[in-house]
Amino acid sequence: MYFASDNTSGLPGPILDAITRANDGYAAGYGTDPLMDALRARIRQTFDAPEAEVMLVTTGTAANALALATLCPPFGAIYCHTLAHIEVDECGAPEFYTGGAKLVHVAGADGKINADALRDTLAQSGRGVVHSVQPAALSLTNLTECGTRYSVPEITELAGIAHDHDLPVHLDGARFVNALVAEGCTPADMSWRAGVDVLVLGGTKNGLMGVEAVIFFNPARTWEAQLRRKRAGHLWSKHRFLSAQMLAWLENDLWLDLARHANTMAARLEAGLTGQLMFPRAGNMLFATLPRDAHARLQAAGAQYFLWPDHQNDPETVSVRLVTSWNTRAEDVDRFLSLLG
Amino acid sequence: MYFASDNTSGLPGPILDAITRANDGYAAGYGTDPLMDALRARIRQTFDAPEAEVMLVTTGTAANALALATLCPPFGAIYCHTLAHIEVDECGAPEFYTGGAKLVHVAGADGKINADALRDTLAQSGRGVVHSVQPAALSLTNLTECGTRYSVPEITELAGIAHDHDLPVHLDGARFVNALVAEGCTPADMSWRAGVDVLVLGGTKNGLMGVEAVIFFNPARTWEAQLRRKRAGHLWSKHRFLSAQMLAWLENDLWLDLARHANTMAARLEAGLTGQLMFPRAGNMLFATLPRDAHARLQAAGAQYFLWPDHQNDPETVSVRLVTSWNTRAEDVDRFLSLLG
Amino acid sequence: MYFASDNTSGLPGPILDAITRANDGYAAGYGTDPLMDALRARIRQTFDAPEAEVMLVTTGTAANALALATLCPPFGAIYCHTLAHIEVDECGAPEFYTGGAKLVHVAGADGKINADALRDTLAQSGRGVVHSVQPAALSLTNLTECGTRYSVPEITELAGIAHDHDLPVHLDGARFVNALVAEGCTPADMSWRAGVDVLVLGGTKNGLMGVEAVIFFNPARTWEAQLRRKRAGHLWSKHRFLSAQMLAWLENDLWLDLARHANTMAARLEAGLTGQLMFPRAGNMLFATLPRDAHARLQAAGAQYFLWPDHQNDPETVSVRLVTSWNTRAEDVDRFLSLLG
Amino acid sequence: MYFASDNTSGLPGPILDAITRANDGYAAGYGTDPLMDALRARIRQTFDAPEAEVMLVTTGTAANALALATLCPPFGAIYCHTLAHIEVDECGAPEFYTGGAKLVHVAGADGKINADALRDTLAQSGRGVVHSVQPAALSLTNLTECGTRYSVPEITELAGIAHDHDLPVHLDGARFVNALVAEGCTPADMSWRAGVDVLVLGGTKNGLMGVEAVIFFNPARTWEAQLRRKRAGHLWSKHRFLSAQMLAWLENDLWLDLARHANTMAARLEAGLTGQLMFPRAGNMLFATLPRDAHARLQAAGAQYFLWPDHQNDPETVSVRLVTSWNTRAEDVDRFLSLLG
Questions:
Q1: D131 contacts in A (CB within 8 Å)?
Q2: What is the pLDDT of residues C178-192, one digit of tens each?
């Protein structure tokens, strides 16, 4: 019963196999491997974006920070949700990579930026005032940190507001695939067609060892991004092992199948939960309030999950985050539910 | 005939196996995996350093830059050889990670810092002068970028000079194991007993996928190092795959055997070369001057290696760098030599 | 009728005279001038702090950023009010100087940090969690950006909370003297005795050309601060002109008299205003809501002041910030009030 | 007998007068003062550069670092002489302001970059190689740190090489005026017409209190420069006192007269010196080797100057730097010479 995070799961067989296959022989390093050429072509095709540039790194924090550093100068402001991973969980990586930019909070229910709040915040942005940091980028997350999902029209609206203010749009897609299969649209629809300029396509939480693709739909600053990657120590010499994984992941819809399984398991979990979720489930994450005795039973049985601050201070309940993964077993879900009582 | 770099080789079987074994089940992330506990214990034992702290990252550039950032403030100076990897080949990573420290060149033949040159440079260091960056660290590389080796007494002398000036010593050990087996001493002798305060123990060039250990023999600033690692996006969620590789590498002397093989192949290559080497060979790298027609034959036969600037401008010759690896085949060495004519 | 800012006023006669006197002859540069020795002694005496170290710079932004950079590492968090000058009006200077630290907002009415809000924020600080920036400093402002004042007990309480969490306390004292004379306490009472570790004593808004003293009550990191000042280009060669001004300012209670005059003029203005102030006046700043027709009359008569966002959207009124200065004339205050109608 | 530095002198009468005049009344802050408008117009006229933008700061270090930060990205290389002030005497300010760029040394006799050395260095620059910092700017200094002067043709040649490599040219003109009057050309000839893109026009060493103008002949990145200035704490609120000084300095050829006097005094000193100068004198600086007994007599008589490293280790002599200023007195020069014996 492992619901702590989707990054506590390992790799599915085809990914391990891809690593083994990539191990044959010698390969040129630093991203010049033939597998990277194949992956680039594959991503361009998958996203219907023949001009897109792709850069691989091994963590979401690195991917986000590198993407933002190409969009935002040191004296810039990045608009993000109060609960965004880049704000809360990256130990200041965006500030480090940008050389000291500022993350400006935008409010919104359920971990999603509210369009009016974004408009209001941008209206007071201080653009043109030398004493203020200057608006530089909008950063969205999908799935959000609350497990909710921006629909395509919602992304389109927010990106439109950003573009009206000449701000490029970054999408932290650590769980992009979970959002994608839930939304049931094409990768292009949920990214550049909706106005996303740079997408972090997360593989790590969906079955890869540590592979994230930064996809620049506008390739103008790709060279700068590559220099920043090298300078940050994120350019792998044995790069073929990254390319190989993501290439195998994109083949035969594996990436979609893995995410679909995780979402299905979360739905199964949701169906068995009584009581209110903290946020509407949209993919493979649930935030639930459990009776304290059920929590005790689950802990005793070895269930793994994180407590979540809920600010209710109800001594009878505890709030928890439950994340399913590509290899979550239905029997574990059912056992979890049975222990709830 | 792949002599371009030891990082164009893949992984030996035991490392692939270790990855496969580590893939079983779930594991806590971010370096809290049990394999990391085992690895830490193993490294402490191997280096006879029960207090040492260990941090894994996936590239040598990241390892060096993180190590240096814990040793050197933004207004500090890092003393290194003119040809050091941190100066020449990391696109300014130390400057990025330290917040703008300065790398100060120290001269010396064959890629090795000369002790008198270090003394002279430190004598003019500007310590205590507010207009100057302040001496902060000495950085050595072993094997050096010229493929030469500091002996234990040489490291001891240079580290002693540094310590006399209150400077901690960083050792870039991308090819530490090649130096170690060539020197025939213990890991402790070539590191902390010789005065090294922070060692980057490189695995990537010696058979791992992308694993480097930063070993702090003085653990005082380990927490800071961990925060800097996270902030740089180098803290892996699926960290077990890094721990597992290095643990398997250290078992049964695999790390030593791999490096020994590479060195042996380089010796075989050296034995067959006629004419002068640019630098004395000490491990698995050779820098040789070849007749241009031999070079043409080798290229035609598909041999892989890098040209090296030699400043001789002799139209009849070309200078090259040849690097052997854990999986270099004797038959490839022999074929290379036969093509030299 | 100049109420735009206290920094639109020039220098009182004694300060100009001090500049002229300091101009005689030659003087050693970079803060080694004898006037700086005299000033240091004078500040130590004035603040009853014989160990304090003093560093002069020419802007409040530089003073704050340098002070914070000595207190907060790149991976640190600085707790400040949502409206703090360091957050709102310095174009990201603290982020630049610290190498990318994060400013964390703490709420509170009237521009003052609320003690419970500070406790709550620190309780969720993420200390010890590698994914979070680490608590590093508390920053207060007195007078605040809303013109209100922390009393000595209030500073003591907030600093106590900070110290309980091992955080040093920075006080942005751009208008420290206005607060001091209003509070009627000693400089020591409003600074180190209340728990302030680093004070920015602002001279520029109170009659100097551009002189701010960073006073380190704990002198441990003074040398680092001096290096950071030099590195930032804030170490003056003709430093005597800074020392001379602040020395003359501290003599014969000039600094106190100048601030007292400004406060008195603000009180005169307040006495004549009808209607509610936006914040309780505590020194030389008022935030008032004026009828739109009065505003029009004042503008027509050439009155200078800034509009202030009040979020009331009342078409009949306009909110304004009025700041008095060391040379505000009573007749201008009275004329302003007469125009209000 | 003050020959330590031209920044140990104070201000000439007209500059003090300008400060006094500027002190009348109120003035808008932060560079929006009418005197700044007048100064900008004056500089454009003086440099025959109607499009130029001008930004004032108070130290040469700040001026250089801000200028370079607008020219050079964090992953860039700045080519400068081994002895350049930005390399040797600014405690890493360029690295701080650029976010960690690298200063690459170019050799040349007498403190001047040698054109062939520049060509060679740029030929090995690593442009387009992701492991290398990328060429970003050429930085010249005139007068140089050795008191020598680049002639207009020399600047033109070096700037041409830089432009051939798409590098903009920065000129550190801390002693630009001394060079200008010695060269006997127009300000335009020694700056943009010779290929300089950004000039730091130093006032501090030539009679101002602390005023340096950064002149952007290509104004494209002026707004960025202004934001960086603010963010660095170098935007003065009482900015009129900076504008006023430089405006008075440019009037009636005062700036030229002050520099001419300094140069004349240096020529007088040179004429009386026996023995070799270390570098050919070109303006107001001399580097001379003195007999040790003469040095002792001068010290005893209170003469002020700096020792200079000469690497000759001759126990009979001592090398010194002598700098004359706008207010150096002929009688002091003569007395100095008489003491030489």
A1: 30, 230
A2: 999 999 999 999 999
Note whether residue A3 is domain-resident: no
Are C89 and A124 an interchain contact pair (Cβ–Cβ within 8 Å)? no
Q: Are residues B275 and B208 in the same domain?
A: no
A326 touches chain B (CB under 8 A): no
D213 vs D221, higher pLDDT: D213
Distances (CA, A) of C40 to A165, C15, C58: 49, 18, 16
Q: For the domain that residue D280 is a member of, what is the CATH number? A: 3.90.1150.10
**Mean pLDDT (chain D, rounded):** 96
Q: State whether D141 and D284 are in the same domain.
A: no
Same domain, D50 and D120: yes
Contact A96 C95 (CB under 8 A): no
Q: In what order do the strands lie in the sheet with B317-323?
A: B285-291, B317-323, B306-307
Q: Are residues B222 and B285 in the same domain?
A: no
Mean pLDDT of chain A: 96
B101/D309 Cβ within 8 A: no
Confidence of residue A239 (pLDDT cuts 50, 70, 90): very high
Looking at the fold, whether D298 and D323 belong to one and the same domain comes out as: yes
- Tell me the pLDDT band of D77, cut-offs 50, 70 and 90: very high
C96 to chain D: which residues are within 8 Å by CB? 231-232
Q: Do D227 and A30 touch (CB under 8 A)?
A: no
Given a cut of 90, whether residue C22 has pLDDT beyond it is yes
In a shared domain, residues D115 and D224: yes
D13 vs A228: CA distance, rounded Å: 51
DSSP designation for C2: B
Find, in chain A, the residue whose alpha carbon is nearest to that of C102: A92
Question: What secondary structure does DSSP assign to B97-148, as a single string?
Answer: HHTS-EEEEE--GGG---HHHHHHHHHTS-TT-TTSPEEEEEEEESS-TTS-
Contact B54, A222 (CB under 8 A): no
Of C73, C130, C231, the CB nearest to B75: C231
Single-letter code of the amino acid located at A168: P
Q: What is the pTM of this model?
A: 0.97
pLDDT over threshold 70, residue B215: yes
Cα separation, B1 vs B301, whole angstroms: 9
Task: Answer whether residue A140 is part of any domain.
Answer: yes
- Strands B169-173 and B198-202, bridge-based pairing: parallel
Interface B-C: count of C-beta contacts within 8 A: 33
Q: Is D100 part of the contact surface with chain B (CB cutoff 8 Å)?
A: yes
Q: Which of B252, B272, B292 is the last residue of a domain?
A: B252
pLDDT for position A212: 98
D312 close to D287: Cβ distance less than 8 angstroms: no
Distance CA C98, CA B74 (A): 10
Are residues A236 and A262 located together in one domain of the fold? no
CATH of the domain at B41: 3.40.640.10
Residue B248 within a domain = yes
Same domain, C38 and C123: yes
Q: Which residues of A touch D134 (CB under 8 A)?
A: 227
Q: Return d(Cα A254, Cα B302) in angstroms, integer.
A: 37
Q: Are A125 and A165 in contact (CB under 8 A)?
A: yes
Which residue range(s) make up the domain with B320?
255-340
Rounded distance between C-alpha atoms, residue B236 and residue A244, angstroms: 19
| C interface test, pick of A7, A64, A91, A97 with most C CB neighbours within 10 Å | A91
Number of domains in chain B: 2
**Pairing of β B102-106 and β B76-81:** parallel
Q: How far is the C-alpha of B284 from the C-alpha of B278, rounded, in Å?
A: 14
Confidence at B294, pLDDT banded by 50, 70, 90: very high
State the amino acid at position B309 in one-letter form. Answer: P
Percent of chain C clearing pLDDT 90 (strictly above): 93
Say whether residue A39 is in contact with chain C using an 8 A CB cutoff. no
